[in-house]
Specification:
Residues 5-205 form the Serine hydrolase domain. Belongs to the LovG family. It comes from Caenorhabditis briggsae. The protein is built from eight helices and eight strands, in the order βααβββαβαβαβαβαα. The protein is α/β, with parallel strands linked by helices. It has one domain (7-215): 3-Layer(aba) Sandwich (Rossmann fold), CATH 3.40.50.1820. The strands form two sheets. A six-stranded parallel sheet has the order 2-1-5-6-7-8, with helices on both faces. The longest helix is centred in the middle third of the chain and has 15 residues, at 82-96. It is globular and about 50 Å long. It starts with 6 loop residues before the first strand and ends with a helix.
Length: 220
Amino acid sequence: MSSQPKLRILCLHGYRQCDQSFRQKTGSTRKLVKALADFEFVNGIHSVAVDEHSETSRAWWFSNADQMSFSSREPTDVSVGFDESVNAVVKFIEDNGPFDGLLGFSQGASMVHLLIAKAQLGEIKLPGIRFAIFFSGFLSLSSKHDTLTSLRIKDFPSMHVFGDSDEIVARPKSEKLADQFDMEPIRIAHEGGHLVPSMSKHKERITQFLREQMAPIESA
């Protein structure tokens, strides 16, 4: 008897995180849906100078060229390292795919949105990827991304999870990102802050969302 096919989801960590730390932070969520999906993690290519442990701190791009740092709150005219990160993720997908969906947290969620927008504009290819899950997502405030952040994302299922107590990415910012998707996005609010929460209270909703995305692989 053949095993039931699973979704393959590629995960992008937040600023000052790395693939391994994000794997740990998503453990409870992954366990919740382990029958439906397998998760793989890609590491940001840019190191963040924080302290003596900075070799594990990564970024997808920097919004401050002088300090080589990032802020989700401050408008900027730069996005240092963004193009290199786009190429790295596209190459990772080419080498390790196919994947069915993308998942991102904070800056990683913003990166996921920008990748989807670039794909819809025909600037890159994301073969097979047809849905996304965002935790504490936000629209990039870099003017370099204006064309991407103003684009309406068409025919692309999405789930957006945000915290009512998030002091880094306030809920309205995540809601604004969700508003860019023309296919009615799933929105889940939790009481916590800037984190990937336990999704046990929302098991039915995330399970239903993933089951809806499984139709193409079940019919393959």
